[in-house]
Amino acid sequence: MILRRVLLAVLALAAGAGIVFVLDRLGVPVEFAAAWLVLILALGLLGRAGLVDDASWPPARPERRPRGSEVSRLAWNINARTGEAGILVVRRVQRVLRHRLARLGLDLDDPEHNAAVDALLGAGVRETFSHAEVTRTDLERVMAAVDRLPSPTNLSSPTDQER
User: Fold this and answer.
1) In 83-125, at which residue ranges do the beta strands (DSSP E only) sit?
2) Bridge-partner residues for 85, per DSSP?
3) Which one, of 98, 102, 126, 103, lies nearest residue 114 by Cα?
4) Could you tell me the CA-to-CA distances from 29 to 15, 22, 144, 154 in Å, in that order?
5) Of 118, 137, 70, 125, nearest in space to 94 by CA
6) Is the distance from CB of 138 to CB of 128 less than 8 angstroms?
């Protein structure tokens, strides 16, 4: 492979020198003929550069840098020094609470449901999201209340004693 490339380069050099010599004998200035030869050689090399087969097709897929898990991203959203929770984790917990209450037919924002929501969650849990600063302990209290919520199937199905 290398010998073939060296031989090809020597033949190209000899052919170029021969062309410049012939043009010089025909009255073309040597510098002009050499400049055109270099230009033609450069265009030939540029045209050939795209045809080199380096067996890289299809190209490799770009590596995706692994993002951290959602749990770790949420954990980084809590300030370890002050215990204050960032807006991302507060919204996430609020979304979980709203979803669980909606499954029970309650709306966190509806004033008519406030008494029922307070009865299910406990006193003060509903007001957690109205504070400007929500702490980690507030979120833990909300999540504990969410875990205590009954499932909709437990509310609607009769127990064995009722049958």
Assistant:
1) none
2) 78
3) 126
4) 18, 11, 92, 100
5) 125
6) yes
pLDDT tens, N- to C-terminus, the chain (163 residues) = 788 878 887 888 888 888 888 888 899 898 988 888 888 888 877 777 665 556 667 777 888 776 666 667 666 778 888 888 888 888 888 999 999 999 999 888 888 988 898 898 888 888 888 888 888 888 888 889 888 888 777 555 444 444 4
Quote the tokens at residue 87.
Answer: 């807006």
The residue count of the chain comes to 163
Cα distances from 127 to residues 2, 11, 107, 122, 124, in angstroms, run 78, 87, 14, 11, 5
Question: Which long-range CB contacts under 8 A does 44-53 form with residues at least 24 apart?
Answer: none
